[in-house]
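Severity: low
Component: inverse-folding endpoint
Summary: output formatting inconsistent between runs
Steps to reproduce: submit the following structure tokens with default settings.
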């Protein structure tokens, strides 16, 4: 009978198989020995602030420490700030060529701690125009298989990544827009979000550590105020890293110091939703968010005193 040859068996007297060196050993990597420390300096992060025109987004951005402004939509008259390409009638950042030149200058310099881009959708539009010109097309959609849109995304991301690589903080400003949302149950409601769209919206939201919505309100005395929404829900697009109060009042100068102190851990800097109310200038989304939070606050107060009331009764009481 023919012998059966076993495949894969170790030959007697064969030298032991060599163990392949692990990738981490060859690259000098190791597993972490302690949790990393969280950077609590707000100004080192990337922030997007959005809201309607005139609410103070540009003033708020200009109050960042050692900031340079890239005015891509219009030159910010009346705001004391370092505004790139506005000296001697330069006209601000009126094209992507100027934007790219500004980024190149920042790479060669250690001036300025924060780069503010106002507005980010205007910058994206300039980028799209430049890419189309370079590719001799009228619109990114003219390139088949999404190549035109991919080229715009790559160019846009490249410039923003270059700024981030310099170690500077970045602040984006955007207008706001209402979007009608239909839930899984078929119910329709309005959500407010930055007026970017498509891949620009997806990229900037992913890039931003903080997304703040600025809204008009009135205080307990009926005086008009401005407030930052730092936390999002189904009607407000907002987010933040770490711990922040949901509402932060913007003072008369729209200083950013309050947000920085709150992010660093200082307590008591937020405003109670019971102390602010919608006014005639508040958006429908802002009104819905404020009323919901005030109703929830009322539920917390009466809970335990008269049993657990139904949410419907409390909402009716607060209306």
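Observed output (run 2 of 3):
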């Amino acid at each position: 009978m023919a012998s059966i040859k076993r495949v894969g068996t170790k030959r007697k007297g064969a030298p032991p198989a060599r163990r392949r060196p692990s990738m981490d050993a060859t690259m000098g990597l190791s597993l972490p020995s302690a949790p990393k420390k969280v950077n609590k300096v707000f100004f080192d992060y990337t922030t997007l602030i959005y809201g309607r025109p005139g609410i103070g987004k540009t003033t708020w951005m200009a109050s960042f420490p050692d900031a340079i402004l890239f005015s891509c939509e219009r030159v910010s008259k009346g705001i004391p700030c370092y505004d790139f390409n506005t000296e001697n009638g330069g006209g601000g950042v009126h094209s992507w060529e100027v934007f790219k030149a500004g980024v190149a200058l920042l790479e060669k310099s250690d001036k300025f701690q924060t780069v503010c881009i106002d507005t980010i959708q205007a910058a994206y539009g300039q980028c799209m125009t430049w890419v189309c010109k370079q590719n001799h097309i009228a619109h990114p959609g003219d390139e088949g298989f999404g190549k035109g849109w991919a080229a715009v995304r790559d160019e846009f991301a490249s410039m923003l990544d270059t700024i981030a690589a310099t170690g500077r903080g970045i602040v984006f400003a955007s207008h706001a827009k209402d979007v009608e949302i239909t839930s899984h149950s078929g119910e329709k409601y309005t959500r407010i979000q930055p007026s970017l769209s498509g891949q620009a919206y997806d990229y900037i939201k992913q890039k931003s550590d903080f997304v703040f919505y600025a809204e008009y309100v009135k205080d307990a005395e009926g005086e008009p105020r401005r407030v930052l929404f730092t936390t999002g829900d189904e009607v407000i697009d907002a987010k933040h890293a770490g711990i922040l109060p949901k509402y932060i009042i913007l003072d008369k100068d729209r200083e950013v110091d309050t947000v920085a102190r709150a992010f660093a851990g200082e307590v008591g800097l937020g405003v109670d939703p019971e102390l602010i109310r919608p006014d005639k200038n508040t958006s429908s989304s802002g009104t819905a968010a404020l009323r919901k939070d005030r109703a929830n606050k009322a539920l917390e107060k009466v809970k335990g005193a008269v049993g657990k009331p139904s949410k419907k009764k409390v909402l009716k009481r607060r209306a």
